[in-house]
């Protein structure tokens, strides 16, 4: 990784909102989506596609709203606890899902995420139904801030987290556990014969990816000031998949670059058209068919089909 | 009396009505190089599958140094010190040769080190040493799927050795290896095994290799052990010559 | 107690029939093409929207309501003819021989596209027209008033099961399909035009999905989001039965239909979750469904 390039990019991001204040919101959302997409990308390494990951994104955002309602008002605490909640949800869901691969894994993730969505949308009394819940401005390390000041803090906080968490994830992917993850896709049997518990490797990855999605969800909740059931809708998962696939080969930075690109594209597209899902879907197909660089490993593998 | 590493008793297993193991019992002793020969399709690989937990016998037992491993998973058995090399090389084909080795070494060390990278100087050295042993040192940076069949075979064996096992099971280690490289490979392999006091069971078709390197031979036929003993003795046995001739 | 058993069973059967229509296309396509079409639910809901639009048109023009039934069939044929060959040739065919991950991503992309296409063409309102259904009247079975339409649905589901079975076992096309399912490469090498088989099989799958949506319009209408709900339901049923197993899907439909109706009767809040609970339980016991199988890797 070209360190100087990365540093320059981070500095550019840090400076950007000073030059163009309207960028701050978009960039905050982009970083948040980047975290979530990174979560999806981690699982993609093992050949597993989660098309329901938005459920953890949403769970964490709702977590923030619930905790705030329960009286917890500290920014750091809210983020930490809700990410923990997302990770926990990931552990529970993952425990069942990591037994599966490919099609089953994808569809079961979708199914569980639809259940999450249904719960968020229907339990009006608890979650506010389709109106969602408010995410109030929290205090930061004891200091009460005005909303604009908080939004600034949120942005720079997210930027910092992007660097720190990004480094952490990079470390993880570079470690034996991270390499074992890619190996699951290539030759799971061999891993077992090396004495490596594949289910544990995958479950750890799933929990990490859920926590990352949760981090994104918490940040988004704060940025928008509200959480709605749509956070968990399958089309939201679709966007995460697109970003993960776009950024694929780029590892950690790739996810954030992809998220940034998509968020800027979204801002532009929204002024022209309503058909964002169509764009995302078409982009996904185009990337897979014509830009295999992120997916070379997936494409090169022949289908392991029953004869 | 040499210590018994592996003890199989009265193993029975069939597939689609064919008896792959019909009341098989055998002992593998510490430090032995035990060869298993027999006609094609007689189920020799099944023996390896039974010893590594890939297949469960219908009845019978397998004990590793006194411990019952009959119902354990391949993963558990690998952790207990049994490594396996495959007939069709099982590699991480999109990774470089050295990455394959380092992952195997890391598996032995224990994977739970998220803060340290896979590639450390120590591990790289150890990987290089093992690759040297099997003659793959020059290929270390090549993607393993690009290697010729024989070299992929060697890598497969090297991965098994990386586990520093007590017992290594090799499924036709020299098949796919050119005749020029066959003996150097076996020399190096056997030297390493002896040096590390590993025990080996190998399924083999090349009778010259068996004659030279095995100190005991089992002749497998139709799910049973037809004959057993020192290669010199076994190769003089009429029944063996009849059933196994034309296989090498 | 016996007052509820008969309606419970009859409602379960009717529910199962609709669920079967939702799932059979998905499992059929998987069986022949080895592709799980994540966009399957969209084709169901597009069928529903087309059918609903035509039915509303028929009613608004005060044409014979019996035409609605023709409309249902027509919608399914229309959707299948329009989308079947098109999707198969451009997207699905490209995925053959590639990893399952690619398959999932491509059909998922299609799902996203169709979701917006639907919204752009049909808008965001729910459509519902039950006049044709009421036209068929009711019957008294076991002391319970039962919609004749529900009986029609059950009958049609049975027809489809028998029809598919006859197709596979007693027609030339069926034999070709069986050959392709058994060994694709072998079939190609003996000269079978697998491309044609794939287009036909996929289009048949689309037809069944669209027909399911159309049939359901008369009882439950169509609203945005139907596609996604149907997709996961269809998958749950296909998974319970074993992917690719048509008879399995039929049995799974009975199970899910029963569980769902049971929930509606006794614990209505859980009715949406009931199919997934059933799937969870089945998959815990048999990870690949009641009749499914997974090929073990040969080493």
Task: Give me the secondary-structure topology.
The complex is a heterotrimer of chains A (307), B (248) and C (299).
Chain A: H1 3-19, H2 23-45, H3 54-69, H4 75-97, H5 102-122, H6 124-127, E1 133-134, H7 147-174, H8 176-193, H9 198-224, E2 226-227, H10 234-247, H11 251-270, H12 276-290, H13 296-300
Antiparallel strand pairs in A: 1-2
Chain B: E1 4-15, E2 18-29, E3 33-37, H1 44-52, E4 59-64, E5 67-68, H2 74-79, E6 82-85, H3 97-109, H4 121-134, H5 149-162, E7 167-171, H6 179-195, E8 199-203, H7 207-213, E9 216-221, E10 224-229, H8 231-234, H9 238-244
Parallel strand pairs in B: 3-8, 3-9, 6-7, 7-8
Antiparallel strand pairs in B: 1-2, 1-4, 4-5, 9-10
Helix pairs in contact in B: 3-4, 3-5, 4-5
Chain C: H1 2-33, H2 40-60, H3 67-95, H4 100-122, H5 131-135, E1 138-141, E2 144-147, H6 148-170, H7 172-182, H8 184-189, H9 194-220, H10 226-241, H11 246-266, H12 274-285
Antiparallel strand pairs in C: 1-2
Question: How is this structure best described in words?
Answer:
The complex is a heterotrimer of chains A (307), B (248) and C (299). Chain A is mainly alpha-helical and 307 residues long. Chain A has 13 helices and 2 strands, in the order ααααααβαααβαααα. Residues 294-307 of chain A have low confidence and may be disordered. With 248 residues, chain B is of the alpha/beta class. Chain B has helices at 44-52, 74-79, 97-109, 121-134, 149-162, 179-195, 207-213, 231-234, 238-244; strands at residues 4-15, 18-29, 33-37, 59-64, 67-68, 82-85, 167-171, 199-203, 216-221, 224-229. The longest helix of chain B has 17 residues, at 179-195. Chain C has one domain (2-285): Orthogonal Bundle (ABC transporter involved in vitamin B12 uptake, BtuC), CATH 1.10.3470. Helices cover 76% and strands 3% of the residues of chain C. Chains in contact: A-B, A-C, B-C. At the A-C interface, helix 5, helix 10 and helix 12 of A face helix 4, helix 10 and helix 12 of C.
